[in-house]
Amino acid sequence: MLPPLPTTPPTSAETRLVYVLQHFRAAYADVPTVSIDYQDAQVQLTDGAGAFFSQTNPYPPEPQWREWQGRKLPFFFGPPADKPLLELLPNGRARIYADLISAAFYLLSGWQEYYSEARDRHGRFPFAASVQHRYGFVTVPVVNYYFDLLKTAVEHVTGRPCRPRRWAPEAPYAAFITHDIDNLRSAWKQPAKEALRQGKLLRFGRQLWQHFTQPDAWDNLEQVQQTVAGYGAKSTFFLLPEHRPAASGTPNADYRLTAPGLQGCLQSLAAQGSELAIHGSLGTATDARLLQTKRAQLPGHSIGNRFHYLSWEPRRTPSVLNQVGIAYDTTLGFAEHFGFRHSYCHPFRLFDFQHGQAHDFLEIPLNVMDATLYHPNYLQLAPDEILPALTPMLAEIERFGGVCTVLWHNENFDPANEHNGPRQFHALMEYLRSRHVAFVNGQDICSAVVGC
Ligand SMILES: [Zn+2]
């Protein structure tokens, strides 16, 4: 059962404009004061949305496809067929015939998920129901292209260049390397099960003996930290403070966060510069009290969250995060495909449909999850197809100076995993290092974006 839609006032053109320009101004280092509006402005836009935002339809009319910066892009509420995208006028004015503000608002705000009733068996908005899937642009940060067009108009009006934001001097973009810790004790289970199935009792016995006498191959947090540190990067660990499965039977952690050995390990990770944050267990995405209770079990003060199974109920989860005072969340990617769930490659603020303004917490969108790349329900890329598949998306983030958020579970640092394991992680990290990214964690991103 979906939470009912609250009765909210229609989202006015002015509200959309304020929300989108707030993000546009945060995307560049110094945007001069220029009037950008639908009427009597230096940069004048065409209102193309009609009555769309006073209704509750999750999907807008089919977009117009136009070329900008050598790329064909979908323009929702697009320009009339006989008009160009942009006209640079001689008297310090510019005219944009596409309703960039409404299109950017539609994608950034999360409108489609909020008003759609489509959910998968884990209660998530499915990739298959998205406009990114329908029109094939999940790996293109379309909103960044819209902003590039708007920036071109602003630069024409003022005669001054707008510089893109930088995460560190000389670094063209940033990478945020994260690990959800679901399992620390279960590496032995699959091989043991397999031995039993094949009737190889001696091998089964050896697996059991190893399990009881030796550390588990997935009990590897220090090794994960050292591997990541080898690239000059720092890990953010999302810890799951619930070892009981959900009522549906879906598992949470295979460990207890309060175990003394683990607490000592976490303190040592934090002392060596790792960030610790909460991996909200099943049910917490719609229950602020539960999330608050679970968060209190983490050592120190954690400011970030990612929900287990990428759980997210668009009509409720954002207000849960606000109530708990989470500074940043990094859940929002599609489990089924890498790319940009909100068509934007910078951290941003979701739209609060009830109050008509941006939410307080920062969303750092998730771009690459290990499980997406090789999983029976998601993609099934061969090991040597992974990096080539990701490279065009990474190049888009580089083009716009964004943040690439990577999720690689600790269990996929097990050398036994040859599909989406340590070798594929190394290939990705080598690539990122070769592009001179700034490796940042969630706290770094929050400090850099304050005021957005
Ligand atoms: Zn998880």
TrEMBL record:
Residue ranges the record marks as coiled coil: none
Pfam families from the UniProt entry: DUF7033 (PF23019)
Gene3D superfamilies hit by this protein: Glycoside hydrolase/deacetylase (3.20.20.370)
Domain DUF7033: 97-184
GO biological processes: carbohydrate metabolic process
Protein name from the UniProt record: DUF7033 domain-containing protein
